[in-house]
Amino acid sequence: MCYSVKIISELGQLAKTFKASNKAPENEGYNPSEKISGFAHPLLPVISQENPGEIQLFKWGLIPSWAKEDKADELANMTLNAREESIFKKPSFKDSIGSRRCLLLVDGFYEWRHEKKEKIPYFITMADGKPFALGCIYSVWKGQPTFSIVTTRANPLMEYIHNTKKRMPLMLSHQEERRWINPELTKPEIQELMQPLDESEMKAEILA
Questions:
Q1: What is the CB-side half-sphere exposure of residue 104 using CA atoms within 13 A?
Q2: Which of 169, 198, 183, 50 is nearest to 105 (CA)?
Q3: 47 contacts 106 by C-beta, under 8 angstroms
Q4: What distance separates the 2 farthest-apart alpha carbons in the chain?
Q5: pTM for this structure?
Q6: Distance from C-alpha of 195 to C-alpha of 174, rounded to nearest angstrom
Q7: Phi and psi for 185 in degrees, rounded to 5?
Q8: pLDDT at residue number 73
Q9: Share of the chain above pLDDT 90, in %
Q10: How far apart are alpha carbons 44 and 31 in whole angstroms?
Q11: End-to-end alpha-carbon separation of the chain, Å?
Q12: How many CA atoms lie within 13 A of 111 on its CB side?
């Protein structure tokens, strides 16, 4: 699964890297940090299928448009991730996967390996060290865009690190990231993209 990310790049830097305009003022709730928890439901930089040329700020934790107010917070904690195996079936996700996909722009993410009672933290990024995109879906609830990170089965590297659940976020190669938000994609094409990234394109380090 993926509940902690690193995003330290300023919005202007991300705009240059991802060739998009920055429409989100720096003072509107974006707080770059070494470690960001999904359970804090932060506003994070995304590029959406609807506005592929802009960086916007969406809240982590997808709340479907039909959610009742008294259930919204509970739902947001349950939808930080969306499993690719059930994404076309689950009520919270099935309306988004076809027409509301987005890219979460990150510098890396964190996962823990379990050895007996010990939890060993790892930091994972692209092998080239550049910011990259995680494949996500989004919805709008009461005017606020919210998103969920898509997860897949783990590749061999992530099987070793995430040795309990054996999952990983949908890391998109630099070549494939824009394809994820192509509105013309068919269901089979979306499913084809929801595969674990080849471990040769990744780098992982143990944190002290």
A1: 36
A2: 169
A3: no
A4: 47
A5: 0.96
A6: 15
A7: -65, 140
A8: 93
A9: 94
A10: 8
A11: 21
A12: 23
Question: Using an 8 Å Cβ cutoff, are 20 and 54 in contact?
Answer: yes
CA distance 188 to 183: 13
Residues facing 82 on adjacent strands = 150
On the CB side of 173, CA atoms within 13 Å amount to: 10
Q: For residue 84, what are the contacts with CB-CB under 8 A and spacing of at least 6?
A: 150, 151, 152, 170, 191, 194
Query: What are the Cα distances from residue 186, in Å, to 97, 142, 181, 190?
Result: 11, 29, 12, 6
Query: Left, alpha or beta for 108 (phi > 0: left; psi -120 to 50: alpha)?
Result: left
Residue 140, CA atoms < 13 Å, CB-side half-sphere: 8
One-letter amino acid of 60? W
Residues catalogued as catalytic: 2, 111
The tokens for 170 are 């949908």
Mean pLDDT, the chain, integer: 95
Task: Point out which residues pair with 146 in neighbouring strands.
Answer: 59, 139
- Token pair in block for residue 176: 């494939």
| Model pLDDT for residues 115-143, shown as the tens digit of each residue | 989 999 999 999 999 999 999 999 999 99
d(CA 20, CA 56): 10
Q: How far apart are CA 24 and CA 62, in angstroms?
A: 20
Answer yes or no: are the C-beta atoms of 4 and 106 closer than 8 Å: no
3-state secondary structure of 130: coil
Give pLDDT tens digits for 50-68.
Answer: 999 999 999 999 999 999 9
